[in-house]
Design goal:
There is one protein chain. This protein starts with a strand and ends with a helix. A hairpin with a 2-residue loop joins strand 1 (2-7) and strand 2. It is built from five helices and five strands. By secondary structure, it is of the alpha+beta class. The protein has two domains: 2-75, Beta-grasp domain (Ubiquitin-like (UB roll), Roll), CATH 3.10.20.30; 86-150, [2Fe-2S]-binding domain (DNA polymerase, domain 1), CATH 1.10.150. The longest helix has 14 residues, at 103-116. It has a five-stranded mixed sheet, with helices on both faces. Helix 2 packs across helix 5. Bound molecules: FE2/S2 (inorganic) cluster (FES). The site of FE2/S2 (inorganic) cluster (FES) has 12 residues, from loops. GO terms for molecular function: 2 iron, 2 sulfur cluster binding; metal ion binding; oxidoreductase activity.
């Protein structure tokens, strides 16, 4: 099935089976590897991207359903001039990543949160990222990084 996706401000026409998850299209067809494969069943958040500014688990949504949406991946988080997003700077400053496999999904979920709520409380941050799993236990540093970016 052929359709067009708008990703990071650019239109891409892809031709994949109708039920192909967005994650596979991003990684295998478009070469955008920021979103990670963790569980593949919508449980871990490693594959999080933004769809019209809200977080979306790209492993469980067929890409063919997302035509017309503005999709943003980790690669599209930085500014047009290439400057890192404030969240990316803050995650580095707080050394929020340990193995860092979860960090792309954390960044995208945090970006969705700050878009909706620029000054979230710690409790709101913890709630927003509750379903993004970090096996290293870096949650406290991740929360501090989001607070730093929101300050
Ligand atoms: Fe999509 Fe885990 S890989 S939620």
């Amino acid at each position: 099935m052929s359709f067009t996706l708008k990703v990071n401000g650019r239109a891409h026409t892809v031709d994949v089976p109708e039920d192909t998850p967005l994650l596979y299209v991003l990684r295998d067809e478009l070469g955008l590897n920021g979103a990670k494969y963790g569980c593949g069943v919508g449980q871990c958040g490693a594959c999080t991207v933004l769809s019209n500014g809200t977080s979306l688990r790209s492993c469980v949504v067929p890409a063919a359903r997302l035509g017309g949406r503005e999709l943003t991946t980790l690669e599209g988080l930085r500014a047009p001039d290439g400057a890192p997003h404030p969240l990316q700077k803050a995650f580095l400053a707080e050394q929020a990543g340990q193995c860092a496999y979860c960090i792309p999904g954390m960044l995208m979920a945090a970006a969705a949160l700050l878009r909706e709520k620029p000054r979230p409380s710690e409790a709101e941050i913890r709630t927003a990222l509750d379903a993004n799993l970090c096996r290293c236990g870096s949650h406290n540093r991740i929360v501090r990084a989001i607070q730093r970016a929101a300050a």
